[in-house]
Amino acid sequence: MNEHALGLITGVAFGFLLQKGRVLRFDKQVGAMQLRDMTILKFMLSAILVGMVGFYLLKAAGVITLGHKAMNVGAVVLGGLLFGGGWAVMGYCPGTAVGALGEGRWGAIFAIAGMLAGAALYAELFPMLRTTVLAWKDFGKLGLPETLGLSPWIIIPVFWAIVLALFVWFEKKKL
Amino acid sequence: MKWKTLDGGWSPYLAGALAGLLAVASAVATTKLMGKTSYLGTSTTFVRAAGMLEGAVAPEHVKNNAYFTKEKVQVDWQFMLVAGILLGAFISARTDRSFKLEAVPPLWAERFGAGVMRRAAFAFLGGVVAMFGVRLADGCPSGHGLSGMMQLSTSGFAALCVFFGMGMVVARLVYGGRRHE
Fold first, then answer.
1. Cα distance between residue A52 and residue B119, in whole Å
2. Which pLDDT tens digits describe chain B residue by residue (181 residues)?
3. Is the ipTM reported for this complex over the cut 0.90?
């Protein structure tokens, strides 16, 4: 099997699960932002709970290497604010826009077109951003264990406890 | 807690946990096959696709652009992953009868009417701003949110908090506050 076949198979499985979890819908995405329907948070956090245990076990076993993205403060905060605003109006994130198209919500094509234009715009402005926002303050490729000075085997159980409590609350409030 | 939702979907807890297993399996498979661990993500593919489209009109311009050069305009593992998401969602929706041709999402129509042009214009504008932001932040809810938080990346936790916090503020401004039905 080659790189392309593996990507396609993984994507089909991921798209299948996203659709089955009903997280591809505009109404679910905006519903979460309105704190009305927590479907997408239930999906994401469940995936994260399972994934973080798997990743850290595999890392300890020497099977995989972690690949943190840089904690570049200006980039994450400013980029995050722009993304959050655009996400609310568009009602999809990049992956779910493509998935939404797959489940027939063809209006997502306008969001996808906008995102392609946004990517092209970013490429044009990249030389300028590299010397400004991206150069403000970069803490580098850090994980919470280094940032907090705690073992991942302390952070993971604490995170599990917080998320499970959140799930109980979601179910109680029927969110 | 039910494993199936009323419309024939799966519990988001179940589908999410399976997506977590998929992320772990994918990390192992990419390491074995490509020699380096690749994590689920989607937004870099938009850069590559934009580069390909732009390259069809102005190939020199794309070749000389520092960002396109950095991200490499080519069909790679992640590009196929994004294509797979389209196909996987289609298969799932067709087989459980939740496939539906729809131009304007119900919640949007309720607030702003069923006009396609207005929805298209705002979806496009939202897309431009969101993708610009996500490239600046270097990751989307898949790359930063799922893959980043699974790895306990500091940037993943920070990014998802900012994404969601700002999303809440703007959603409130655009669609109004929480409704009690």
1. 38
2. 578 887 889 999 999 999 999 999 999 999 999 999 999 999 999 999 999 999 999 999 999 999 999 999 999 999 999 999 999 999 999 999 999 999 999 999 999 999 999 999 999 999 999 999 999 999 999 999 999 999 999 999 999 999 999 999 999 999 986 554 4
3. yes
Can you list the alpha helix ranges (DSSP code H) found in chain B? 12-34, 43-57, 59-63, 66-71, 77-95, 106-112, 116-137, 149-150, 154-175
Q: Among all chains, which residue has been given the structure tokens 């870099």?
A: B44
> Does residue A55 belong to the interface with chain B, where contact is any CB pair within 8 Å?
yes
What letter would DSSP give residue A63?
S
> Does any CB of chain B come closer than 8 Å to the CB of residue A166?
no
Q: Do A84 and B170 touch (CB under 8 A)?
A: yes
The Cα A107–Cα B131 span in angstroms is 17
Kindly report the pTM of this predicted structure: 0.95
Amino acid identity of residue A1, one-letter, is M
Contacts of A83 in chain B (CB under 8 A): 129-130, 133-134, 137, 140, 162-163, 166
**What is the maximal distance between C-alpha atoms in chain B?**
57
What is the chain A residue with the closest CA to B168? A33
